[in-house]
Design a protein that fits this description.
The chain has a four-stranded antiparallel sheet with strand order 1-2-3-4, covered by helices on one side. The termini are far apart. The protein has 75 residues and is an alpha+beta fold. It is built from one helix and four strands, in the order ββββα. Strand 3 and strand 4 form a beta hairpin.
Length: 75
Amino acid sequence: MELPKFLLADNTDFPDAIFIVHTEYPRFIINLENDEVEWMEEFSKEDEADLMDETESLIEAATAFYDREVSRYDA
């Protein structure tokens, strides 16, 4: 099965949360309500340095995905 790069998720136990799931490496879930990120990968010290460079652009892409999805819903 091929998955999209981002998925929009919610959960009734967290009614104010807006979750975006990044399905490609490095996999993570971000809660746009508070920008908390949960990584679904284990990283080596070498990977962490590279990840710090990439994190900002991944979070921007996740936010852009959410904005695009919401704009399509409102249309």
